[in-house]
Design brief:
Oligomer: single chain
Protein name: Transglutaminase-like domain-containing protein
Helix content: 55-70%
Organism: Streptomyces doebereineriae
Radius of gyration: 20 Å
Family: Belongs to the UPF0162 family.
Order of helices and strands: HHHHHHEEEEHHHHHH
InterPro entries: SirB1_N
Largest sheet: 4 strands, antiparallel
């Protein structure tokens, strides 16, 4: 298998405990959660590396002008620093790399998926006092500055290009074929951002069956978030079976069947049959 490789079990358990604690805190820290995702993916990311990534975000924030002005001025200042001077941006090839979903690697490579580049923009801008937030457009994550009536959007994947209303319409139309709805411009909750990052990791792993290890930890971190789809439990059970842990997979399938039975008994029966089949593989 290709790197990065997950950490040993003891380190992994500690990362997951901290991830769960942070996700359930009163004000979850987006950069901390993203770096814990990175530590779960990359066994070489130790506490020194996590601290170094936070220090780099602080350093970048220190290079921004002091209160440059309104939302557009903030967007332009971020583009000039992160996009123009530092070279943060994305390319189609970044979708093929797991590192593009890991904050510490995005800070190192200055390349990543739209949502991770947006995390860099948000965390640098937030440290400098900007009115910044993520905007989860369908199929493409961007950042917003300022209140709704003065909102300015920027696309970190395109080097921080400041978007017009027409640009946002084109992004949505290209991703969904539909028009832009004002509700799509609402600030994204930090935990929703983390869930979307983990969804991207799961999608990357789903296309690479040899990396079921990545799919499993991404599902298990998603299950630690306060709100998550119940079907993730079914996905985890299937991954256990895929990885040859038939006993654990069967236990998980039976547990999921109990949840499903309350609303769809025929579906629960099918899941129980899958659990039976998993146990039969032990013979």
């Amino acid at each position: 298998m290709r790197p990065p490789f997950p950490p040993p079990p003891e380190r992994s358990a500690e990362i997951r405990r901290r991830f769960a604690d942070e996700a359930r805190s009163e004000r979850p820290d987006l950069s901390a959660l993203c770096l814990l995702v990175g530590a779960q993916a990359d066994g070489e990311l130790d506490e020194t590396g996590i601290d170094a990534a936070q220090i780099e975000l602080d350093r970048l924030a220190g290079q921004l002008p002091f209160r440059p002005g309104g939302p557009r001025s903030w967007a332009v200042s971020l583009r000039e620093l992160l996009g123009d001077r530092c070279g943060f941006r994305g390319a189609p090839a970044d979708y093929q790399r797991l590192e593009s979903s890991l904050l510490h690697e995005v800070l190192r490579r200055r390349r990543g998926l739209p949502i991770l580049l947006s995390v860099v923009w948000m965390e640098v801008a937030r440290r400098a006092g900007a009115p910044v937030y993520g905007v989860a457009l369908p199929g493409h994550f961007v950042v917003g500055f300022g209140p709704t009536e003065e909102q300015v959007l920027a696309d970190p994947f395109d080097g921080g290009r400041v978007l017009s209303g027409g640009d946002a319409e084109l992004l949505v139309a290209g991703a969904t074929g539909s028009s832009l709805d004002p509700s799509m411009l609402s600030p994204a909750d930090p935990l929703d951002v983390v869930q979307r990052i983990l969804n991207n990791v799961r999608a990357w792993a789903a296309a690479r069956p040899e990396r079921s290890d990545v799919a499993l930890w991404a599902v298990e971190l998603s299950l630690l978030l306060p709100s998550h789809p119940a079907r993730l439990r079914y996905e985890r059970a299937q991954l256990f079976v895929q990885r040859g842990d038939f006993v654990q997979g069967a236990v998980e399938l039976d547990a999921y069947a109990e949840v499903v039975a309350a609303v769809d008994e025929p579906a629960a029966a099918r899941v129980r049959q899958q659990a039976h089949a998993a146990r039969a593989m032990l013979n």
